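Q: What residues go here?
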């Protein structure tokens, strides 16, 4: 577990550094390449290790945190989108951003319920 955490920190530093450099040099390909390489390194190490990387408690905490993040984010962008749409008379430039955020909130909730239905059918009743 300790080795995997160290590897993740090193990979995160590598990806952050390369992405920062790619932003400075305006090279999108370099950023995408760094993210792909970092993901591959983490995946390969996790696949080939004998360490116990995750137990039931970690999985449950991760599940709860992910669900709360999705709920709070979708509610936040829905309210921000609604607020920007309501201000369309004073700030017409922000109306499109309001609609985009609102549609993104709906899409996120739809994805959540699609995956919820899939996993409920696969593992549930």
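A:
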């Amino acid at each position: 577990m300790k080795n995997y955490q160290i590897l993740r920190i090193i990979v995160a530093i590598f990806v952050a550094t390369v992405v920062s450099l790619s932003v400075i040099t305006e090279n999108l390909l370099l950023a995408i390449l760094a993210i792909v390489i970092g993901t591959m390194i983490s995946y390969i190490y996790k696949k080939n290790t004998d360490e116990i990387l995750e137990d039931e408690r970690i999985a449950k905490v991760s599940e709860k945190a992910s669900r709360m993040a999705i709920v709070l984010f979708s509610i936040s962008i829905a309210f921000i989108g609604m607020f920007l749409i309501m201000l369309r008379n004073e700030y017409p430039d922000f109306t499109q951003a309001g609609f985009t955020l609102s549609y993104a909130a709906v899409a996120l909730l739809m994805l959540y319920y699609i995956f919820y239905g899939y996993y409920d059918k696969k593992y549930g009743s």
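A: Context that may help when evaluating the design: The first helix runs from residue 2 to 25. The chain has two domains: 2-48, 56-123.
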